[in-house]
Write a structure and sequence with these properties.
Elements lengths: L2 H7 L2 H9 L1 H8 L4 H27 L4 H29 L10 H16 L2 H25 L4 H10 L2 H12 L8 H26 L13
Length: 221
Protein backbone atom coordinates (compact mmCIF):
# COMPACT_ATOMS: atom_id res chain seq x y z
CA UNK A 1 0.00 0.00 0.00
CA UNK A 2 1.12 3.53 -0.67
CA UNK A 3 1.34 6.03 2.18
CA UNK A 4 -1.78 7.84 0.96
CA UNK A 5 -3.68 4.54 0.98
CA UNK A 6 -2.53 3.84 4.53
CA UNK A 7 -3.48 7.31 5.73
CA UNK A 8 -6.95 7.23 4.14
CA UNK A 9 -7.65 3.75 5.51
CA UNK A 10 -6.79 4.99 9.01
CA UNK A 11 -9.62 7.54 9.04
CA UNK A 12 -12.46 5.48 7.58
CA UNK A 13 -14.36 5.53 10.88
CA UNK A 14 -14.24 9.33 10.79
CA UNK A 15 -15.28 9.44 7.11
CA UNK A 16 -18.27 7.20 7.76
CA UNK A 17 -19.25 9.42 10.68
CA UNK A 18 -19.10 12.50 8.45
CA UNK A 19 -21.10 10.85 5.66
CA UNK A 20 -23.89 9.96 8.10
CA UNK A 21 -23.87 13.26 9.99
CA UNK A 22 -27.23 15.10 9.84
CA UNK A 23 -25.48 18.27 8.67
CA UNK A 24 -24.27 16.45 5.54
CA UNK A 25 -27.42 14.43 4.92
CA UNK A 26 -29.43 17.60 5.52
CA UNK A 27 -27.66 19.29 2.62
CA UNK A 28 -28.89 16.52 0.32
CA UNK A 29 -32.54 16.40 1.32
CA UNK A 30 -32.79 20.08 2.19
CA UNK A 31 -33.71 19.42 5.82
CA UNK A 32 -30.70 21.31 7.22
CA UNK A 33 -32.01 24.58 8.71
CA UNK A 34 -30.62 27.59 6.83
CA UNK A 35 -29.49 29.17 10.12
CA UNK A 36 -27.11 26.23 10.64
CA UNK A 37 -25.75 26.58 7.13
CA UNK A 38 -25.23 30.29 7.75
CA UNK A 39 -23.41 29.47 10.98
CA UNK A 40 -21.21 27.06 9.04
CA UNK A 41 -20.39 29.56 6.28
CA UNK A 42 -19.37 32.18 8.86
CA UNK A 43 -17.13 29.68 10.62
CA UNK A 44 -15.65 28.44 7.34
CA UNK A 45 -14.77 31.99 6.29
CA UNK A 46 -13.04 32.55 9.65
CA UNK A 47 -11.33 29.17 9.32
CA UNK A 48 -9.95 29.89 5.84
CA UNK A 49 -8.15 32.99 7.05
CA UNK A 50 -6.14 30.88 9.50
CA UNK A 51 -5.81 27.94 7.12
CA UNK A 52 -4.24 30.24 4.53
CA UNK A 53 -1.52 31.13 7.04
CA UNK A 54 -0.72 27.44 7.51
CA UNK A 55 -0.55 26.90 3.73
CA UNK A 56 1.89 29.79 3.57
CA UNK A 57 4.02 28.06 6.20
CA UNK A 58 3.87 24.86 4.15
CA UNK A 59 5.11 26.81 1.15
CA UNK A 60 7.96 28.33 3.17
CA UNK A 61 9.10 24.90 4.44
CA UNK A 62 8.45 23.03 1.17
CA UNK A 63 11.03 20.54 -0.04
CA UNK A 64 10.73 21.33 -3.75
CA UNK A 65 10.10 24.37 -5.92
CA UNK A 66 6.90 22.76 -7.21
CA UNK A 67 5.57 22.35 -3.68
CA UNK A 68 6.49 25.93 -2.82
CA UNK A 69 4.73 27.39 -5.86
CA UNK A 70 1.65 25.19 -5.62
CA UNK A 71 1.02 25.89 -1.96
CA UNK A 72 1.38 29.61 -2.65
CA UNK A 73 -1.23 29.14 -5.37
CA UNK A 74 -3.47 27.37 -2.89
CA UNK A 75 -3.22 30.37 -0.54
CA UNK A 76 -4.58 32.55 -3.34
CA UNK A 77 -7.23 29.95 -4.19
CA UNK A 78 -8.43 29.97 -0.58
CA UNK A 79 -8.74 33.75 -0.75
CA UNK A 80 -10.76 33.48 -3.95
CA UNK A 81 -13.12 30.95 -2.35
CA UNK A 82 -13.56 33.26 0.62
CA UNK A 83 -14.28 36.24 -1.62
CA UNK A 84 -16.35 34.44 -4.25
CA UNK A 85 -18.36 31.92 -2.23
CA UNK A 86 -18.44 33.06 1.37
CA UNK A 87 -18.76 36.79 0.84
CA UNK A 88 -21.52 36.30 -1.72
CA UNK A 89 -23.50 34.38 0.89
CA UNK A 90 -22.63 36.81 3.67
CA UNK A 91 -23.62 39.86 1.60
CA UNK A 92 -26.94 38.24 0.72
CA UNK A 93 -27.56 37.44 4.37
CA UNK A 94 -26.31 40.88 5.52
CA UNK A 95 -23.86 39.26 7.94
CA UNK A 96 -20.82 41.30 9.01
CA UNK A 97 -17.96 38.82 9.40
CA UNK A 98 -15.94 41.23 11.55
CA UNK A 99 -18.52 40.93 14.31
CA UNK A 100 -18.50 37.12 14.36
CA UNK A 101 -16.68 34.90 16.85
CA UNK A 102 -14.99 31.59 16.17
CA UNK A 103 -16.77 28.55 17.57
CA UNK A 104 -14.87 26.43 20.13
CA UNK A 105 -14.29 23.67 17.55
CA UNK A 106 -13.05 26.14 14.96
CA UNK A 107 -10.65 27.79 17.38
CA UNK A 108 -9.31 24.42 18.53
CA UNK A 109 -8.87 23.19 14.96
CA UNK A 110 -7.10 26.30 13.67
CA UNK A 111 -4.93 26.52 16.81
CA UNK A 112 -3.80 22.95 16.16
CA UNK A 113 -3.00 23.71 12.51
CA UNK A 114 -1.10 26.89 13.34
CA UNK A 115 0.89 25.10 16.03
CA UNK A 116 1.92 22.40 13.55
CA UNK A 117 2.70 25.04 10.94
CA UNK A 118 5.00 27.01 13.22
CA UNK A 119 6.78 24.12 14.91
CA UNK A 120 6.86 21.15 12.52
CA UNK A 121 8.50 19.98 9.32
CA UNK A 122 6.93 20.20 5.88
CA UNK A 123 5.77 16.54 5.86
CA UNK A 124 4.02 16.99 9.20
CA UNK A 125 2.35 20.21 8.02
CA UNK A 126 1.29 18.45 4.83
CA UNK A 127 -0.36 15.66 6.83
CA UNK A 128 -2.19 18.17 9.04
CA UNK A 129 -3.67 20.24 6.18
CA UNK A 130 -4.56 17.33 3.89
CA UNK A 131 -7.82 16.28 5.60
CA UNK A 132 -9.33 19.68 4.79
CA UNK A 133 -8.49 19.13 1.11
CA UNK A 134 -9.26 15.44 0.91
CA UNK A 135 -12.44 15.20 2.98
CA UNK A 136 -14.01 18.22 1.26
CA UNK A 137 -13.32 16.66 -2.13
CA UNK A 138 -14.74 13.32 -0.97
CA UNK A 139 -17.88 14.92 0.48
CA UNK A 140 -18.28 17.31 -2.44
CA UNK A 141 -18.10 14.56 -5.07
CA UNK A 142 -20.50 12.37 -3.10
CA UNK A 143 -23.03 15.16 -2.65
CA UNK A 144 -22.77 16.31 -6.25
CA UNK A 145 -24.04 12.91 -7.40
CA UNK A 146 -27.13 13.36 -5.23
CA UNK A 147 -27.74 17.09 -5.54
CA UNK A 148 -29.81 19.31 -3.27
CA UNK A 149 -33.21 21.02 -3.57
CA UNK A 150 -31.81 24.15 -1.88
CA UNK A 151 -29.99 26.64 -4.14
CA UNK A 152 -27.44 27.73 -1.54
CA UNK A 153 -26.57 24.14 -0.71
CA UNK A 154 -26.17 23.28 -4.40
CA UNK A 155 -23.81 26.24 -4.88
CA UNK A 156 -21.62 25.02 -2.03
CA UNK A 157 -21.69 21.42 -3.30
CA UNK A 158 -20.68 22.44 -6.83
CA UNK A 159 -17.68 24.36 -5.50
CA UNK A 160 -16.16 21.36 -3.73
CA UNK A 161 -17.47 18.67 -6.08
CA UNK A 162 -15.97 20.25 -9.20
CA UNK A 163 -13.09 19.03 -11.35
CA UNK A 164 -10.95 22.14 -10.82
CA UNK A 165 -10.99 21.70 -7.04
CA UNK A 166 -10.26 17.98 -7.40
CA UNK A 167 -7.19 18.66 -9.55
CA UNK A 168 -5.52 20.68 -6.80
CA UNK A 169 -6.49 18.17 -4.13
CA UNK A 170 -5.08 15.22 -6.08
CA UNK A 171 -1.77 17.01 -6.39
CA UNK A 172 -1.64 17.69 -2.64
CA UNK A 173 -2.51 14.07 -1.82
CA UNK A 174 0.24 12.81 -4.13
CA UNK A 175 2.82 14.73 -2.09
CA UNK A 176 2.33 12.22 0.73
CA UNK A 177 4.21 9.61 -1.27
CA UNK A 178 6.95 12.05 -2.33
CA UNK A 179 8.28 13.06 1.07
CA UNK A 180 11.13 11.03 2.53
CA UNK A 181 10.65 10.65 6.28
CA UNK A 182 11.78 8.45 9.14
CA UNK A 183 9.41 5.97 10.75
CA UNK A 184 9.05 8.27 13.76
CA UNK A 185 8.14 11.25 11.61
CA UNK A 186 5.69 9.15 9.60
CA UNK A 187 3.90 8.23 12.82
CA UNK A 188 3.66 11.93 13.74
CA UNK A 189 2.29 12.63 10.25
CA UNK A 190 -0.40 9.98 10.63
CA UNK A 191 -1.39 11.33 14.05
CA UNK A 192 -1.69 14.83 12.57
CA UNK A 193 -3.74 13.48 9.69
CA UNK A 194 -6.13 11.61 11.96
CA UNK A 195 -6.55 14.46 14.44
CA UNK A 196 -7.27 16.95 11.65
CA UNK A 197 -9.81 14.51 10.19
CA UNK A 198 -11.56 14.33 13.56
CA UNK A 199 -11.58 18.12 13.69
CA UNK A 200 -13.29 18.12 10.28
CA UNK A 201 -16.08 16.03 11.78
CA UNK A 202 -16.24 18.31 14.79
CA UNK A 203 -16.44 21.38 12.55
CA UNK A 204 -19.64 20.17 10.88
CA UNK A 205 -21.03 18.88 14.16
CA UNK A 206 -20.34 22.27 15.73
CA UNK A 207 -22.29 24.01 12.94
CA UNK A 208 -25.17 21.59 13.30
CA UNK A 209 -25.35 22.38 17.02
CA UNK A 210 -24.59 26.10 16.48
CA UNK A 211 -21.90 25.66 19.13
CA UNK A 212 -20.68 28.77 20.89
CA UNK A 213 -18.53 29.61 23.89
CA UNK A 214 -20.63 29.94 27.07
CA UNK A 215 -19.51 33.57 27.37
CA UNK A 216 -18.55 36.14 24.71
CA UNK A 217 -14.85 36.19 23.88
CA UNK A 218 -14.81 39.60 22.18
CA UNK A 219 -13.81 42.43 24.51
CA UNK A 220 -14.05 46.21 24.41
CA UNK A 221 -11.36 48.47 25.84
Amino acid sequence: MTRKDIFWSNVQDVIKGIEKHPFITGLIDGSLPMRNFQFYIVQDALYLREFSKVLLMASTKAESEEQKINFLTHVMDASRVEEGLHYTFLRNWKIDLSSQEMSPANRAYTSFLLSVGYSSSFPEILAAVLPCYWIYMHVGKSLKEKGSPVEEYSTWINTYGGEEYEKGVRWAIDQLDKVDVSRTEEVRMLKNFRLASIYEYMFWDSAYKAERFPFPINVNL
